[in-house]
């Protein structure tokens, strides 16, 4: 039987901004912005380049893949202004982008390469040949997993390349099902959405065990599977390449909840989520697409219209509270990685001081009970007072004050400066 987790959180315990999403409209070559708190939609937040495809977000910038321009368009999330265009390589036809700290990784769909970008200098700093027509990516334990769709040879050699991020070399190549377009990390495994060939071979999900780099489970979904997202009730939702259905399976049991014979409707081509809502992007060719918002119980809450033939939706990472700027010590970029995590996650943020004595990270459960206090430490002692910001971090190992493991679920980590709560963020522990 399907399990439904109902989350009740006291608003007074949180200090979070409203949810904002961005949608890439490939048909109208625009980027749309949706403020889900106010309901405001800015259909043309920014004009994009030729054949925009995917987008990666930080708390400050959007990085849009313009496939026909062979470039990445960097956009200021506050103003919608284009900061720069990061050129990749002639005929590379970039497909997807994955952001990891100060770096980004881009797949070159026609040139069979993966590129590493330095986001501080906005330049390509490395590249590596992989399999045929690389598409989606994900990262786990210092390894980049790349889906090689190999559509150029009729999907004859579909694989996942595993790249060591330290050496930026391919360690192993894993055979998978047909057309591995999208990848994600859930509960310590790599989940690969293999869409099939659209005709006779249909969508499947491959589960890769990263300890052995082998496929341990294959889930028959049917249809044309698209990207994946995980909700806190342990349900993975999968988009539909045809844009009208939605598929799902249980993260713990791998039980298929919705497949092509019994889909969830209405669906869409792309999905995204946060701890409360599921966002489904879909539509028909020649018409403006829509974003449907569902709660954790799959009730439709609202619907928003964006541009023509939308190809991606991303939710902005949580942004720190404006209360930061009123304190003598400024803190920003509070985040944790990995998220979801098991067994541990690193919480990091930046400050303009070396004095860490009055800083603390508090961990709370959904009942508002404090689970643990953690003291951050400096990561870059070369910091010079008044000339920049310093990074601090702490690792939470998923235990409580008695060093006993806590259960799976949503937790809140709260940054405290000088006895005042500055900002809270959410993380998801999956065991």
Description:
The structure is a single chain. The chain is mainly beta. The protein has 2 domains: 19-315, Methylamine Dehydrogenase, Chain H (7 Propeller), CATH 2.130.10.10; 322-429, Sandwich (Immunoglobulin-like), CATH 2.60.40. Helix content is 0%, strand content 53%. It has no helices and 36 strands. It has strands at residues 20-25, 30-35, 40-47, 52-57, 61-66, 71-76, 82-87, 94-100, 103-108, 113-118, 123-129, 134-140, 143-148, 159-164, 169-175, 180-186, 189-194, 204-209, 214-220, 225-230, 235-240, 247-250, 256-258, 270-273, 277-282, 288-295, 300-308, 310-315, 331-337, 345-351, 359-364, 370-374, 377-378, 390-396, 409-417, 420-429. The protein has a 4-stranded antiparallel sheet, with no helix packed on it. A 4-stranded antiparallel sheet has the order 4-5-6-7, with no helix packed on it. It has a 4-stranded antiparallel sheet with strand order 8-9-10-11, with no helix packed on it. The model is unreliable at 1-17, 318-328 and 380-388 (pLDDT under 50).
